[in-house]
Amino acid sequence: MSEPVSVVGAGIAGTWTALLLAESGRRVTVYERQDEAMTGATSHWAGGMLAPDCEGDGAEPVVIRLGHRSVQLWRSHLPETPLNGSLVVSHPRDRADLERLARQTAGHERIGAARIGEIEPALAGRFREALFYPGEGHVEPRRALPALHAKLRSLGGEIRFGADVRPEALDGTVVDCRGLGAREAQPELRGVKGETVLVETAEIALSRPVRLMHPRWPIYVIPRANNRFLIGASTIETEDAAGVTLRSALELMTAAYTVHPAFGEARIVELGTALRPAYPDHSPRIAVAGRQITVNGLYRHGFLIAPALGELVANYIAEGTRDNEVMRWS
């Protein structure tokens, strides 16, 4: 068997990297400082959007490229991943923003009221037009991450929860996927706050994420299991993750109410916040220093691009393959 590899961090980046290394025949051990519930991890609070085209108005081109590859990897490794597309709607007063999004992004169909009602019956008669991105999808992070952990274990990988280790203390090839935990070695990293609201209602059903055009953020209403919906997410330049602000909560919940009035009677299950690790250019990086490899800077696109980043790491370790747009050497 090939030389073993250690991965530090069992969030979405570390898990996909470890999984693809195990598939390539490596013996992989993952070290995670939290317990198996991982309630303190950024991945636990993520939206799970797989929207490489819809996010193209704000994301760097490399994110779109990696996102398209990642959607393929989600489809092949977790075939139950909902890939029903994503839908973008707007208030009449925000129609100019919808037109701007149409110009700045690819992979969409412009649809009218009748078609909206066909694909999302709950929204029939509520919007005159929308942009439909059929090649996109979403995952529920709190279900997808344990499923990936189980798949890794089935391939012989080991996950050691409650193991707070430093990458430089490990022998052999080490992949550091700690997010903001790696900031002492990468001072360029910063935390960007994201806030979400989880609600529950049986009065409405959606088959896909619905994005509402918003002057500040891309706001999505994302269906979850058991009549729940995640509304998110804000993007705030602060590292104060103590809680969701009143302003954000109002804006997120008002957006959901605009999508459908039934959300006005929904039960608030949870308000959540997390810090996403970002570099100044908002692009991800794979940094290689000898046998120490760092995967970081996934920003607000963790579930979208983690599979493709993991594949790049696995290919580099196996064959020395390089992606000069993402990888750095020192």
Written overview of the protein:
The protein is α/β, with parallel strands linked by helices and 330 residues long. It has two domains: 5-48 and 140-187 and 280-329, 3-Layer(bba) Sandwich (FAD/NAD(P)-binding domain); 86-134 and 190-278, D-Amino Acid Oxidase, subunit A, domain 2 (D-Amino Acid Oxidase, Chain A, domain 2). It has seven helices and 17 strands. Strands 5-6-4-11-12-13-10-14 form an eight-stranded mixed beta sheet. It has a seven-stranded mixed beta sheet with strand order 8-2-1-9-16-15-17, with helices on one face. Strand 11 (210-212) and strand 12 (219-223) form a beta hairpin. The longest helix is centred in the last third of the chain and has 18 residues, at 302-319. The two termini are 28 Å apart.
Short key terms for the protein model shown above:
single chain, 330 residues, alpha/beta, FAD/NAD(P)-binding domain, D-Amino Acid Oxidase, Chain A, domain 2, 2 domains, eight-stranded mixed beta sheet, seven-stranded mixed beta sheet, 28% helix, 25% strand, globular
